[in-house]
Structure formats: C-alpha cells, structure tokens
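## tool: complex_structure
## caller: assistant
## args:
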Amino acid sequence: MSRPPLRLLCAFAVLVACDLAGKLFAYALKLPVPGTVIGILILLAGLIALRRVPADLKHVSDFLLAHLNFFYIPAGVGVMAYAALLADDLWPILVALFASTFLAMLAAGLAFQWTSRLTRGKDGDA
Amino acid sequence: MSDIGIKLIYWDRVFEAGFWILLTLFFYYLALRIQRALGGTPLANPVLLASAPIIALLSAADIWVGDYMGGGQALIWLLGPATVGLAVPLYRNFARVRSALVPMAVSLVVGSAVAVLSAVLIGDAMGASMETVRSLAPKSVTTPIAMGIAEEIGGYASLTAAFVIITGVIGAVFGAAFFNMLRIRDPRARGFAMGIAAHGIGTARAFQEGEVTGTFSGVAMALNGIVTALLLPALWLLFAS
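## result:
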C-alpha cells in the first residue's frame, strides 16, 4: 500500500463524522430528509471551503462508491423476510414495479435530454 | 456465574456477525467475478447475484433472517459513510451539475410524478389491495424516506422496504439497455433518470458506468427523496380522500 494507512483511516473518519453530524442535525430539527443527505451537504461545504479534495479522502470515497453495491446486499437479503407478504398480491406487485420503474426512467431520461437540448446554447457543455 | 454467561453470549454474537459479514464478502466477491467474466454487464447485478445465494442458504438451513442481520446491520450502517462519499464526485463535477439545473428540475418533477402515479395506477388497476397500493407509492425513493412515507399514507413500511429494493434492482439491471434503446446517450441524463427511478442501487450501478453518470444519479436520488417526502403525503391526502 502506497498511502499511509493512518491517513486513510482519518479520511474514513471524516466520512463517518459527516454522516453522524447529518443524522444528528436531521434528528434534532426533525427534517423529513435522511441524515446522510445532510451529511453529503456538510462534506460538500467543507470541500468548497477547502477548494480541493484531499488525496486520501478521494482514495477512500472512490473505493467505497465503486463498491456501493456491497452495502446493499443485506437489504437484498432482507426482502426474503417479506416473501409471504409479497405473495398476497404477487402479480399486481411485479407488474407495477417493473412497468413503473421503466416508465420513470423513460420520463426522467427523456425530460432531461429534451430540456438539455433546448437550453444547450445557454448552458454550454452537453 | 451469570457474568460468565453474559460474556459467552456476547462472544457468540460477535462470532456470528463476523461469519455473516465474511459470507456476504465472499458472495460479493463471487458476484463481481461473474460480472467481470460476463464483460461487466448490468444484467449480472452484484446485489442480486450475492443476495440470492445467501437467501437460498438461509432458507435451506432454516435460519432466521434476523440472525443474518446481526452482521447485515453493520454493513447497512456503513452505507451511510459510503454514501456521504458522494460529496467528492459532486464537488469534482460541481460546474457540470450547476450548468444542468434546468434539465434537472424538469426531469425531477416529471420523473418523480411518473414514478409514483404509474405504480399506484397500475397496482390499483390490477386489483392489488389498498394497503399494497399505498405501499407501492414511494417505491422509487431511498429506503428510510420510503418507509416513512408509506407509514404516513397508510401503507406497510416493511412491504415498502421490499418494493424499494426490488425497484432498485430492476432499474440497475435493465436501465442501461433501456436507455440505449431510447437513444439516451448523455451520461447526465442516464444517471439522473437512474437515480430518480432506482435510488441507491441504481446509483451503485451508475458509478460502474462512469463518474458523471454516478454523480448525476446520486444527486437525483437525493432530490427525489426530498421532493417525494415533502409532496407525496400532502398530495395523497388531498386526492385520495
């Protein structure tokens, strides 16, 4: 490992601290937003103030984001707990979930693409 | 005596949690190898490929999911700090995100409305129970928000949790091919649509496609969560009653 492990650990601690601060903030102010979203904003504000991304923080966050799937596996396993509930309305559920996911991707994707083309002259890159 | 007993139980739990985390790591590694062997196709979704054998194993051995969650909870907890890491690509692509405010706003309004309405209308038309329909409404937003909304409008939070995960996997698996079919090639549009429809699991996939796609997906996931949490319960009470 080329990077000192202690500095990577500090970078990870920064992520945990931002998440925790965001959760406390959301809880204290009873915001209808998950604390993690506030945590993202806290870290973003910090980076904007710092005007750069420390190399260790970049290293750790890139690694975690590349493996974001890993942290969703327990949630995937958890679906099994609701198998009996799902069985009641299985077909309506499956059709609704599949069709609605495709429709939402279609609507959001085309809306973005069309508006981006309409406003391209103003926004520059596209 | 009782002191020793408590310690034994404690170590038993620690051992078990470690075992389940190790098992999850193993199947995740296997899923990544399979996905890589298949050329990185989104059809081989790591969440699906890794959780399916774990579910099969737990059912075969007749083990309660709650036991697995002794280790699973630790990974779910780590999801928080990992997601906070989104601030880094967001900072790197800040100018790009800021210059796309208009398309993002339009896509957010249209996309979140379609995500909710289509699920509710299709579920209702196919004869699902009222509770199921209510639980379907927030299925495109990230789990903690979706569960809260489901409770507010009279659905089952736990049922919603399952819908959210299934929705995420559907989007992550079929999104890329679907966007290609629709000729949506702009990585910003692909990412944003993925985040609106398929929240975090879609975002995890979007980061496999590229940093810009992943960043826009993460922004969309956060914005859709906020907008849906603020508007859905109020609108539901207005129209459903």
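## assistant note: Chain B has two domains: 2-83, 87-240. The mean pLDDT of chain B is 91. Handing back to user.
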